[in-house]
Description:
Blueprint: H1 2-13, E1 15-20, E2 28-33, H2 34-103, H3 115-133, H4 141-170, E3 189-191, E4 194-197, E5 203-208, E6 211-213, E7 220-222, E8 227-235, E9 239-247, E10 250-258, E11 267-268, E12 273-277, E13 288-294, E14 297-299
Antiparallel strand pairs: 1-2, 3-6, 4-5, 6-13, 7-12, 8-9, 8-11, 9-10, 10-12, 10-13, 13-14
Helix pairs in contact: 2-4
The structure holds zinc ion.
Amino acid sequence: MGKRINQLGKLLGERVDILVMPRMGASLKFKVRVLTLVGIAVAWVAITLAGLLFFASGYNSQVIKAENELMHVKMRLIGDELERGRKYLELTRTTDMQMRQMLGMPGGQFVNMPKDWQTTKEEEDRRAQALFQKDLKDLTTDEFEAYIDTLEDNAKARLASFQEIAWFFANRREGLNSTPSIRPSSAPISSGFGYRLDPFGRRTTKRHNGVDFAGKPDSPIVVTADGVVRHAGWVPSYGQAILVDHGFGYSTLYAHTTAIRVKAGDVVKRGDKIATMGSSGRSTGTHLHYEVWKDGQAVNPRNYFK
Ligand SMILES: [Zn+2]
């Protein structure tokens, strides 16, 4: 080992001749130590590397900057498009109201929607409005998602409303098919309409707004009159629920279902299968909770089928 280092030291200390030979004139001869040559080589490599690194980092940040700017422009364009779409949606709301007025239809929100649904709807509207008031670029990712979702919901609601108008127009002179008149399920009734009795035979304060049918899981549920599906999906405690607007002041509600076959805006005919019996939401066993609403009031469904 010591011998090797000795040899290396000797080599580095040695002088070599460097000959520079121009095309014309006399050649130059340098005597340079090997150590100096090695030093120059190392310095050269270091400078080159440093230069490369410097250039590369500068280049990267340039690219990122350009990409950022491009993203910004794209986001702004998307934002503008969304905003335009939302304004058109607002316009259709006005048209919707005008058409309803012309036809003598109930305007705005669904008249027969149960009270607690109405408030959630209003709450949602308020949230949406607050969101729409903000500048798009100030929205967080979550808010942006909520914004898109709300836009979509609004568009769906609008479409459902227009379909309802079309349906109302087509059925204006009838009305017969709009009155609930069949059983929504062939299963036996397990609980009736009105105040339930507690174990002491006293009336409890909570009124049962509908009639319960207890059947086997997956037995069919049919709609009891012609109409337009106003809501199909989850509602707290009602579970998977369907609300159908029949016009002429009537609507029906089907709760705790599974396998919903319809969506908001669908036109349904009396006897159409809309879902199957389940136990979704606040429910202790497989049953259908069925409500009939007339002019904003829950009425006894027992009067609407034989
Ligand atoms: Zn019930």
